[in-house]
Amino acid sequence: MPINKNALIRYRALDRCLKNTTRKYSAKDLLREVERILESEGFEKGIVKSQLHADMQYMQDFWKAPILAEKDSLDRRITLYRYSDPLFSIENQPISEVESKVIKEALSVLSRFKGMPQFEWINEIVPAIQDKLGFIAQDREVISFESNWDYEGLRNITPIFNAITNHRVLKITYQDFRADEPYSIFFHPYYLKQYNSRWFAFGLNEASSNSYWNLALDRIQDIVETQDEYQYNEIDWEEYFDDIIGVTRRIEDELEEVRLWFPPEQAPYIKTKPLHRTQKCKEDATGLEVSIKVVLNFELERTILSFGSSMKVLAPDKLKNQIKSKLQLSLSRYED
């Protein structure tokens, strides 16, 4: 069965005690040592005696640990524990077949990030692990992720990521698609997000005092790190994006219930790939009605329009009218 972090720390603490040839440990000694190690790793509670015996039994079953229990020669009421083989340690044991399979699968996934900014270390660590553990690399790829290696914003991921982790203020030269000339801002970066194969940086724009400023990485022309004082924030970015599809929202915007209709042939795709985490479905012979609670934005409209004739907006009316107008405009462009 899988071993969680807490359990692994306990096993290693017990292993260090049991392989110590200079002393023997009672159950009380072992409990005290495990509690000390757990506290040093940030865990608040130790373990009880029944858990201690369960841990030692697991070590015997999983690693074939030669745990020897013997009575204290000075007090027969006390049982002392040690390894019968002083050279044994769970750290010296070869990985199991199941562990080997899991590691190979993880390396296969990691290998897909080779060449991406901020993942340069993968080029060294993956072959090193494969060599150390005696793995043979796949002679062909068996998994593929969506990627856009020609995306111009890739070069900007590393400097912005470093600025976020090191709390640095950046002077960014930016070319907005709606502006004729590029402009510069002093930017305190807080968060990076990928959406629809593009990357976006969110942070504080000093000029506007807006902590939710959004920059598309492919529109950034230049990045210069400054010595200005970095302004921290407590924004929960996961919560911020939880209420939207995409990356665009205004702070003052509120959640709205969006109701959509799909024909029967489209229903299986929508049910197996929800539009949003709040999606609720109601299906009958005429089709599938879906409701989601989101902030209305540009990306939501784009998502709806991508379904073409395979969707109808039922509510709210303002969204329904916006989609209808855009479809009418699109249709007019086909008229001679």
From TrEMBL:
| Domain (WYL): residue spans on this chain | 157-223
Concerning PROSITE patterns, the annotation shows: WYL (PS52050)
InterPro entries, alphabetically? CBASS_pafABC_assoc_protein (IPR051534), WCX_dom (IPR057727), WYL_dom (IPR026881)
Q: Name one Pfam family in it.
A: WYL
Q: What residue stretches are annotated with the WCX domain?
A: 255-328
Tell me the PANTHER family matching this sequence: PTHR34580, SLL5097 PROTEIN
What name goes with this protein?
A: WYL domain-containing protein
User: Could you read off the lineage of the organism from its UniProt record?
Assistant: Bacteria, Pseudomonadati, Bacteroidota, Cytophagia, Cytophagales
